Amino acid sequence: MRIVLLGAPGSGKGTQAQKLMAERHVPQISTGDILRAAVESGTRFGQQAKAIMEAGQLVSDEIVLGIISERLREADTEDGFILDGFPRTRQQALDLAELLDELGKPLDTAVLMDVEFDVLLKRLTGRRTCSLTGKLLNVYFSSQEELDACTSNGGELIQREDDNEATIRSRLEVYREQTEPLVEFYRKRDKLQTVNANGTVDEVYARLLEIL
């Protein structure tokens, strides 16, 4: 199973990737995670990325692709992988396709986690962390009992600074401009599957397994 997970912030890509990884025993390859790991382990591309980040600059597509190439050559990817957070642009998708062909690990499918815009806004702006337990809650979707369990014991429901509506609308707009063209890219190549990602984690996971 070699898949790319597509979807806006808040669509549940990371959560579903974690469930797939646990059940199917294939690694989730998240760009941010492998970038940090490559820097820490001092791989060839990791050293280049470290120098660029220390200079306060953005890591180029070429280096990110190099780090992904290093990761995909590791033994645990032989039975498959879940790419989460890459590609983000059409050019990255073209580069990835070329890399996977070179490695003999072509993509099986790209899965779009499809969520209504107003649901995305509620998922992201409603996120709160209980100051007592560290539990992640949502003022729109968590039960009143869960919310009260925090506040009635003297805890606070804390919102991250970047979870305000203006910032989130901006993030969703960037996604639409840069990443939504990937949907058409994979559709034209008969690689696209769409999952209705509205609903509970388990409901969405059942739909995901059905198409896979």
TrEMBL record:
Main location: cytoplasm
Region of interest (LID), ranges: 126-163
CDD domains listed in its UniProt record: ADK (cd01428)
GO molecular function, one term: AMP kinase activity
EC number: 2.7.4.3
Any one cellular-component term (Gene Ontology): cytoplasm
Endpoints of the signal sequence: none
Keyword annotations: ATP-binding, Cytoplasm, Kinase, Nucleotide biosynthesis, Nucleotide-binding, Transferase
InterPro entries: Adenyl_kin_sub, Adenylat/UMP-CMP_kin, Adenylat_kinase_CS, ADK_active_lid_dom_sf, P-loop_NTPase
Ranges where the record places region NMP: 30-59
Catalytic activity annotation: AMP + ATP = 2 ADP
Chain positions recorded as ATP binding sites: 10-15, 127, 199
Keyword Protein biosynthesis part of the UniProt annotation: no
Record: residues binding AMP: 31, 36, 57-59, 85-88, 92, 160, 171
Pathway of action: Purine metabolism; AMP biosynthesis via salvage pathway; AMP from ADP: step 1/1
Annotated compartments: Cytoplasm
Pfam families: ADK
Biological-process GO terms, alphabetical: AMP salvage
Quaternary context: Monomer.
Family: Belongs to the adenylate kinase family.
HAMAP family for this protein: Adenylate_kinase_Adk
Function noted in UniProt: Catalyzes the reversible transfer of the terminal phosphate group between ATP and AMP. Plays an important role in cellular energy homeostasis and in adenine nucleotide metabolism.
Stated name of the protein: Adenylate kinase
Organism whose genome encodes this protein: Woeseia oceani
Lineage: Bacteria, Pseudomonadati, Pseudomonadota, Gammaproteobacteria, Woeseiales
Gene symbol of the encoding locus: adk
